Structure formats: C-alpha cells, structure tokens
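Quick note —
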Amino acid sequence: MLAVSPMTTKTLSHYEILAPIGDGGMGVVYRAVDVRLGRPVAIKLLRHDGAISEESRKRFVHEARAASAAATAATARDSMRCLASNV
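Predicted structure written out below.
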C-alpha cells in the first residue's frame, strides 16, 4: 500500500488524475489521462513541504526532459513502423 496523501482535486490543467502509483523522496506519481489527446500519462508532483533543494528541482526538470525525449523517440519510431507497413 502506498503512503501518499490524497489529492483534493481530480484535474490538473488538461489532465484527469486517476490514482497514485508511487511515491519517493521528491514527490508523488499519479496515473492520469491527458484529456486533450486521450492518452494515459504519469504525472509526478513535487512535495510542497519546502524540503526540496534547488539541486533536487534541477534533477526533477532533467528527469522530466529525459522522459519526454524517450516518449518522443518511441512515438517517432512507432510512427515510422506504421508508415513502413503501409508501403
């Protein structure tokens, strides 16, 4: 069982928050849906207790950029497979 605090809201921008899936030293990860694109996503929220250092914030941004690049590369690869199979 995860020791996460429940969110008071079920939406964040254009994301519908579904359930917590993990927590760690920096924050909590939630399963969510991007309602604009209709796809599942994971959202990591930093803790609000003021204990996050500037170095931790930088690491968080670096992690987010790396995850985004990996997702973009996978999407491009899958798109190329679809195009190749239609040739």
